[in-house]
Amino acid sequence: MRPSVVYVHGNGNKPRADLLKSQWDTALFGRDMGAASRMAYWAPVRYPAPLPDHRPDPLDGGPQPAEEPPSGAAERAAAAAPPPEEFVARTLDEARREAGDTGPEGRAHPDEDALADWLRDMTYLADTLAHTESAPEPGPADELPLEAVPLPRPGRVALFRELVKHAFKDVHAYFFGGAGPAMRAVVQEALDGPDGGPLVVVGHSLGTIIAYEALREREREVALLVTVGSPLAITEIQDSLARPPAVPDGVTAWRNASDLRDLVALDHTLRPEYAPQDRVTDVLVTNDSRNHHGIGEYLSQHPVREPVLRIFGDGPG
Question: Strand, coil or helix: what is 107?
Answer without folding.
Answer: coil
